[in-house]
Amino acid sequence: MDNQSQWKSSTGFILASAGSAIGLGAMWKFPYMAGIYGGGAFLIMFLLFTIIVGLPLLIMEFAVGKMGQTYTTRIYGKLTNKKWLNVIGWNGNLAVFILFGFYSVIGGWIIIYMVEVFQQLIGIKPPGLDHIKFEEVITDPALTIIGQGLFIFITMGIVMLGVEKGLEKASKIMMPLLFIFLIIIVAKSLTLEGAMSGLRYILEPRVKDISVKGTLFALGQSFFTLSLGTTGMITYASYASKEMTIKTSALSIVVMNIIVSLLAGLAIFPATEAFGFKPTDGPGLLFKVLPQVFNQMSLGSVFYFIFLILFLFAALTSSISLLELNVSNFTKNNNDHRKPVAIIASILVFLISIPATLSFGSLNGFRIFGLTLFDCMDFVVSNILMPLGALGTTLVVGQLLDKDALKVSFGKDRFNLFRPWYYLVKYILPLVIIIVFIMQLI
Q1: Is 39 helix (H, G, I), strand (E, B) or coil?
Q2: Counting beta carbons within 10 angstroms of the beta carbon of residue 15, is it exposed (0 to 12), middle (13 to 18) or buried (19 or more)?
Q3: What is the domain extent for residue 110?
Q4: Is Membrane one of the keywords (predicted)?
Q5: How many CB atoms lie within 10 A of CB 351?
Q6: How far apart are CA 396 and CA 390, in angstroms?
Q7: Were both Cys, which of 52, 161, 215, 229 would link to 166 (CB 3.0–4.6 Å)?
Q8: Residues 142-163: pLDDT tens digits?
């Protein structure tokens, strides 16, 4: 424990945590969810749920990390003197291990598309984004496995450098660039003829499209888009100093997450509406619909390449935190073992995710309860492991941890927010998580 990791600055901690939260959920899932379930109505529900549910849960996970100051497969036992509760940390460890494999498949697709578009830009291949066929890409076993391996290799390289030189430095570069590139795409999108129709589609509340299912998706989106339930945020908070203000940090991350989700919608909707497409197709939105949209723009390949960089940054900043949690737990926060553990963990993730990569091709016929192996990985993490992790942490904080110790960790409380936050965590949020858990399974 003498060689434990630590953030060099609060800015680095906030940007890295924001990067962990701002993943494919904000950049990819939010736009098409909003498109299906009411536009501005979904946005309003998402904002309310993020503030009422997501922010308190994020503050809770930061409080646990700040109080425990250790790796997550030990932190629960340390704080409660009940070692068996470390099973919550192991649940999170399993969740991020599987989730990294899931992310690496999509990350591999992004890299393949970037290479294809780059070859067009420098003249190696003929111009035209319509030449890239999504179905041909995802069913090519060699291509997808190579892309997946490259994504994992990049993630591993950053994590091997450590918290300060790897995670913090990468986040300080990638997060500002993500915002800059996203604003460029939004500006381009809004200049297209017919863009205002797309703007109304994302911002105007369509009450007729609101449903119970859409409301639950908005609740789930506010929950999962902040990486809650995997103990990843607890790991990042454990690297912070005792002086860290958890409320300010959590609020900053929530605000950045909301802004990126909204900007992603503003980037996609005007462009798709301008060219007569509907942004309601998950993976197809990024890999099938958007190439057609950008193909009809001037300098479309350039702007699509920038858009792919955005998605790569979003995927990488999240995958870094997923690998980091495994490294933290298996090195027991001792940096002397960081590099070999990062290599071994990356190799294992690569091996277990190959079947998921092949589930769109040679293993497409193999189903579990009607789901491909890729979909199974997503379902198990999003619908089972993450809610269980969040529920376990909420019960530990609300029922077992000392209230006065939590108040100290909460920090200066000028507006008397501790009491409502504490009772929300103690009584309300466990019920909310159970409802989300049951409904997601149904």
Answers
A1: strand
A2: buried
A3: 10-441
A4: yes
A5: 10
A6: 10
A7: 161
A8: 999 999 999 999 999 999 988 8
